[in-house]
Inverse folding.
């Protein structure tokens, strides 16, 4: 199948279903109102009319129930794919298996940078978020990876930044902290283990942490080591499919650092990005080949995502905290993180609201370089769509930067242009990809963008297990997945 079939596929029909229902009602009810009926049997006719009406209404409501259940599954194009109304049954595996793949910093649109035949195989025969996956705020690696596997916003899963302080104990969280106290919520590998099922993690933030029934079992839980070649990661995941059927983990993660680190170096438009995207595509190809050789490609559910996007940054879009000195002194040790998430915790004795007011006064004065591109908030006053307040770990003062701007303490030697992420998750540049391929995903289907906290419920639905409470919507999976009439 040529990749041009992507462009021929259409959006799900958005027509008003009630219009169809009205025409159905009219059709069912028109028969009894025959103008040639005799008067002598008026009451009989009237009674039967009411009866028929009742039956017709019942039929109509039954039909409407069916109609709505099916119309909640977005339709595909005019190809044979549109005939799919239920999931495909497993042929070789005896249990659904979900392989969750993350390509770090894979900004939505990178899939068009170069020839990506393997990613496009997943898109053509799978379900894609047509305008990308929406990350959570802050659009950083650890908060987002952990939202994907817990279905929780960072305020609720506890990983509110890549590094932060615990205000109560003064302890510092870094990306190497594996103590369970930091990692709240219930990640998918724990949910799976709690159901007596097996999971395997080839890197994912939080996967090394022992929680509930998850003990990070040797051989199935890899401690993070960025030097392990991507090929080796793929080979190891493929080797799990050589295990006896009952031993195959039902949930697996696979993580690639690319193209995030190239993005930071050169921004989203550098040629290094194109190369890294081609490299990720080769890994997807290797994976598909390996699964096909084992006869399980059509059985395995592959969910390919990124954690966030990337935007170009340059030195002339800088804001310096020292420039605010005429209004308020912000010493470096008040600042938990600078850019793109400015997070400030003033010491006791300084009212956060006072600090916010003075900072904003300076930023709006017209006398601070790029001042209008930074807005400072008490965290409770941030737009509620950011869900970034309900945790003591979140410092009381948060600065929101405009796209591509950076904040630093003081003027230093100029640096090269590069790339960054962490900005408002409403920015299109922060979006990443979502592709689902497997028995529960319609072929060639496009769905509207959604937040990554929905993925937890999607995975538990595919695995037929009960998930923990989370911030995804309970009804979301039925709008994306094919209904499952098979037991497995
Ligand atoms: C999509 O799936 C069909 C049915 O299995 C297969 O014939 C076709 O080659 C697949 N297309 C791509 C691009 O892999
Ligand atoms: C990390 O992986 C590399 C490459 O496989 C290996 O040489 C190295 O020993 C590993 N480091 C640790 C700490 O395991
Ligand atoms: C998110 O989930 C947590 C835990 O279930 C809950 O306490 C919180 O109210 C939820 N927040 C939103 C915005 O849904
Ligand atoms: Zn990242």
């Amino acid at each position: 199948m040529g990749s041009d079939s992507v462009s021929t596929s259409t959006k799900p029909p958005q027509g008003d279903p009630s219009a169809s229902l009205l025409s159905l009602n009219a059709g069912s009810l028109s028969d009894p109102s025959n103008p040639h009926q005799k008067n002598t049997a008026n009451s009989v006719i009237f009674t039967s009319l009411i009866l028929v009406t009742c039956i017709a209404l019942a039929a109509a409501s039954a039909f409407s129930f069916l109609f709505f259940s099916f119309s909640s599954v977005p339709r595909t194009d005019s190809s044979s794919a549109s005939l799919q109304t239920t999931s495909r049954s497993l042929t070789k595996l005896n249990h659904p298996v979900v392989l969750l793949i993350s390509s770090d910093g894979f900004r939505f649109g990178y899939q068009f940078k170069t020839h990506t035949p393997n990613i496009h195989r997943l898109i053509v025969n799978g379900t894609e978020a047509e305008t990308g996956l929406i990350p959570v705020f802050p659009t950083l690696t650890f908060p987002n990876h952990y939202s994907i596997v817990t279905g929780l916003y960072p305020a609720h899963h506890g990983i509110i930044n890549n590094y932060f302080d615990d205000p109560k104990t003064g302890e510092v969280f870094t990306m190497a902290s594996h103590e369970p106290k930091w990692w709240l919520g219930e990640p998918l590998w724990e949910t799976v283990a709690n159901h007596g099922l097996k999971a395997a993690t080839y890197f994912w933030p939080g996967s090394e942490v022992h929680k509930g029934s998850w003990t990070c079992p040797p051989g199935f839980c890899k401690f993070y080591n960025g030097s392990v070649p991507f090929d080796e990661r793929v080979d190891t995941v493929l080797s799990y499919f050589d295990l006896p059927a009952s031993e195959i983990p039902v949930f697996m993660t696979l993580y690639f650092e690319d193209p995030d680190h190239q993005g930071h170096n050169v921004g989203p438009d550098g040629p290094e990005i194109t190369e890294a995207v081609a490299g990720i595509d080769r890994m997807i190809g290797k994976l598909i080949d390996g699964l096909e050789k084992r006869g399980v490609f059509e059985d395995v559910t592959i969910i390919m995502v990124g954690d966030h996007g990337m935007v170009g940054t340059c030195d002339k879009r800088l804001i310096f905290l020292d420039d605010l000195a005429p209004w308020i002194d912000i010493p470096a040790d008040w600042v938990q993180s600078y850019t793109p998430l400015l997070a400030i915790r003033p010491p006791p004795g300084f009212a956060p609201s006072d600090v916010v007011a003075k900072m904003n006064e300076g930023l709006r004065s017209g006398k601070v370089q790029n001042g209008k591109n930074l807005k400072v908030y008490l965290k409770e006053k941030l737009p509620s769509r950011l869900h970034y307040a309900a945790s003591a770990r979140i410092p009381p003062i948060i600065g929101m930067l405009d796209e591509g701007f950076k904040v630093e303490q003081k003027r230093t030697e100029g640096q090269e242009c590069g790339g960054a992420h962490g900005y408002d998750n409403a920015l299109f540049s922060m979006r990443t990809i979502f592709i689902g391929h497997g028995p529960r995903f319609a072929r060639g289907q496009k769905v509207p963008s959604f937040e990554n906290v929905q993925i937890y419920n999607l995975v538990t639905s595919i695995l037929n297990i009960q998930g923990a409470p989370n911030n995804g919507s309970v009804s979301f999976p039925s709008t994306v997945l094919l209904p499952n009439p098979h037991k497995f």
Residues 1-82 have pLDDT under 50 and may be disordered. The CA atoms of residues 96 and 463 lie 6 Å apart. DSSP finds 13 helices and 17 strands in the chain. Residues 42-71 form the longest helix (30 residues).
